[in-house]
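ugh finaly. both done.
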Amino acid sequence: MSDEAHLDDTYDNLFSALCVELGFCLHEKGQKRVIGALSDGLDAATKAVFVAEGVDFLNASGDLRRAVRDCLKANLPAG
């Protein structure tokens, strides 16, 4: 199994939750952007979700931004 395939499997639950719970169904490029941003923290990853989906982060409601951040936090892979 390649590292890329393993990476996708590692974050499947996270991206499934974003899609099912919040409607942020990211394409592969967007998922990679979010994974890359995770090393900079949850706030950076949250912003990356909005950018990947083409949603204006600054004009999104605080409730939506918080929901995305909470979803990321709740579904981060262990380890």
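ok and the 2nd:
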Amino acid sequence: MEKEFLEEIKKFCTNISNHFPNSRLPMKKLPWIALKNHLHDKSYPPGEELKSSLERERKSRMILEGLVVAYELIGELDWKIYRVYEEGDIVVDLDSLRSGNPSAIRFQAYTKVRLAELSNKNELLLLKKHPSMNQLSALINQFMYSREAAFAKLLSMSNFEKYNTFLINYRKTAKTLKVQEMAELLNFSISTFKRLRKRKD
């Protein structure tokens, strides 16, 4: 099981490295066993909360399998779908991480989810003991921020462009979310969403 987990971590990190072909990161020489030993292999059933809005962010989560949804608290009682994270994404509450305080964001497993979790404490220990991991850490952070920026850009597009881009970039999510949830995520009314889907078809 540990060997399989190690291979999943390598595959995850290699995919991120491939997004930055000019980085010249020596993947084969990295201390993979040390990285694995600082990570936790965690699985969550559908509907289980990964982080509540009352908690401050203390870890990062690499999605090895499944779909995670972020909800934002609107007002005092209403939760709105804020973001989706698929296999290959990194789930972190950036607002809470920056401020050191809880935010209005909570994470929940939408499907069965498998994560490689890295606590902030373990990340500091890993980078201190193994400085060669700093470049990979920087690439992971760059990838994470680029994904957040890309999703924000998607939401700023015109309705039809936003709908099409979402279907292309989030195929698994588009097949998994309910119509109402997808409309809420993309800031569409149900009637607008159905009209766009009909136009696409």
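summary for the 2nd one i guess: The domain at 2-154 is CATH 2.60.120.10 (Jelly Rolls).
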